[in-house]
Each structure stands twice: as C-alpha cells, then as structure tokens.
C-alpha cells in the first residue's frame, strides 16, 4: 500500500460518506500535486482489496510459490484452486528478496562489476527501498492497533504506538492546543497534516523479531509468499484470481524498479526458487 492509498484509506474511514471529489479536496490542501484521477484510482484499488471492510488494512506477506494458507480470518474469501494462469502473471517468491538481507554488499559488488559508484546504485533503488520500508512500518502500525481500531486514545498514547512502528510523531506532540483523544486513523490524519505527507518515517526503526505475519491480498489468509512488487499471496491461484485488479500497480512498480526486479529474480533463481 503506497502513501497515497494510506492517506485515502484514512480519510475514507474518518469520512465514510465522502465522495472521491471531496476526498481529493481534503488531500490537495497538503498535496497539491495529487489529481482527482489518482484519488479515484487509489479508492478503486482499496475497494477491490476489501480494505474498507476490515480494519486495520490488509497486511502483506512474503509469498511462497506453493505456500500453504494459514487459518481463515472472519473476512477470508473461499480459497481458489486450479485457477487458469493469465498471460503475463509474474513470478511468486517464497518471501522478501534475499538480496535485501545484505543490500550494501550486493550493491557494492554490482557497482564494482559495472564500474559505477555504489551511491548510484543506491539512488536507482531509492524509491523501491523507501516503499518497502513504508509498507513494513504500516503493517507494524496496524498490528499495534489491532483490536483498538475505534478506540479513542490520547495523543501521547498514539505517539507511543506510532513511534514504535517507526513514524516520526514528534510534530504532532508539539501541536497546541493539544488535540483531544481520537481513533488511530484520526491520529494518522494529524501526522499527515503536520508533516504534509513528507518525512513521516523515523530513522533508527527496529522491526519486530520475529517478523509480523502477513496476509494474502486476495483471500486474506496468513501466508508467506510475495509477488515481485511485494504484494502478498498464498499461492499462484490467489495471485491469478487477483491479477486483473493488481496488474496495473504491479507493472508500474516493475517498470519503475527494474534493477530491484532483476536483483530479486537473480537472488531467488540462485536458490532454485522460480515458478
């Protein structure tokens, strides 16, 4: 889920009767570069994923080409089987890209081979790495609020959770007069408003260990596999069922992060895991 989808989701939850145009008007005050068409597209993707029906939003898992699904949550869809594979369906990998475990070494070696400064490699991967970091922290945040989706907490209590999930909540804590107790999505709105959607992530973030569970973007069951773009699916059947909805964003990520896609394919291929 990208930053725009997160912002649209928060506003949809806090303003459930608002139209896409009204949501756009709320967003454009802080982000004038956002178009109405982008808001409509983000809203459509969220609706297709069922994000409005179950809060906190779906979490994404590392996928295994033949990974088994976990227990069925209340909002789980029937598990598909023997689904026809559409043309162009990407590889499904057992988990996060192996090269991310030691990206500094991998990029350094690659830079040396092609005679390019390592910093150039990092720049080429900047947006991709930032999005993965953002997704990881969003999953952590929604996990911390699980069971408290509608509970009104003080700004200080929200600050503890947001900071734990790797967000810089310091500007919200400096707001005067002090905002009244609110739900988590309203706290997210406050964070977005005080930062204009920029520099929301805090340095020094330590992700949970072991990693938090992730859930299939199609059937909502816990799983461990992921598509090339990072979206979570139980297996190729769920990936194929969701391809019509997922294809545009997946191909956009792949086009904008060709180096990352190549590294991921190579690192999993070296382990003999390609389907």
TrEMBL record:
<keyword id="KW-0862">Zinc</keyword>
<feature type="compositionally biased region" description="Low complexity">
    <location>
        <begin position="54"/>
        <end position="67"/>
    </location>
</feature>
<feature type="domain" description="MYND-type">
    <location>
        <begin position="216"/>
        <end position="250"/>
    </location>
</feature>
<dbReference type="InterPro" id="IPR002893">
    <property type="entry name" value="Znf_MYND"/>
</dbReference>
<keyword id="KW-0863">Zinc-finger</keyword>
<dbReference type="GO" id="GO:0008270">
    <property type="term" value="F:zinc ion binding"/>
</dbReference>
<keyword id="KW-0479">Metal-binding</keyword>
<protein>
    <recommendedName>
        <fullName>MYND-type domain-containing protein</fullName>
    </recommendedName>
</protein>
<feature type="region of interest" description="Disordered">
    <location>
        <begin position="39"/>
        <end position="94"/>
    </location>
</feature>
């Amino acid at each position: 889920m990208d930053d725009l989808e997160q912002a649209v989701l928060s506003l949809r939850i806090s303003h459930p009767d608002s139209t896409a145009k009204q949501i756009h008007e709320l967003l454009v005050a802080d982000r004038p570069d956002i178009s109405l068409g982008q808001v409509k597209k983000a809203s459509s993707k969220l609706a297709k994923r069922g994000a409005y029906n179950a809060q906190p939003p779906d979490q994404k898992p590392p996928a295994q080409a033949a990974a088994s699904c976990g227990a069925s949550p209340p909002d789980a869809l029937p598990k598909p089987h023997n689904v026809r594979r559409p043309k162009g369906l990407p590889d499904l990998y057992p988990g996060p890209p192996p090269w991310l475990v030691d990206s500094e070494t991998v990029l350094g070696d690659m830079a040396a081979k092609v005679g390019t400064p390592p910093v150039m490699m990092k720049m080429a991967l900047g947006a991709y790495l930032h999005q993965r970091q953002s997704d990881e922290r969003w999953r952590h945040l929604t996990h911390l609020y699980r069971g408290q989706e509608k509970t009104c907490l003080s700004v200080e209590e929200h600050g503890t959770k947001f900071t734990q999930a790797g967000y810089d909540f310091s500007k919200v804590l400096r707001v005067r007069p002090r905002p009244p107790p609110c739900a988590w999505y309203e706290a997210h709105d406050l964070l977005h408003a005080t930062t204009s959607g920029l520099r929301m992530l805090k340095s020094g973030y330590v992700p949970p260990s072991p990693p938090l569970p992730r859930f299939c973007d199609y059937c909502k069951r816990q799983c461990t596999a992921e598509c090339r773009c990072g979206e979570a699916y139980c297996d190729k059947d769920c990936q194929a069922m969701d391809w019509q909805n997922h294809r545009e964003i997946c191909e956009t990520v792949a086009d904008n992060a060709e180096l990352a896609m190549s590294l991921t394919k190579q690192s999993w291929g070296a382990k003999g895991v390609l389907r």
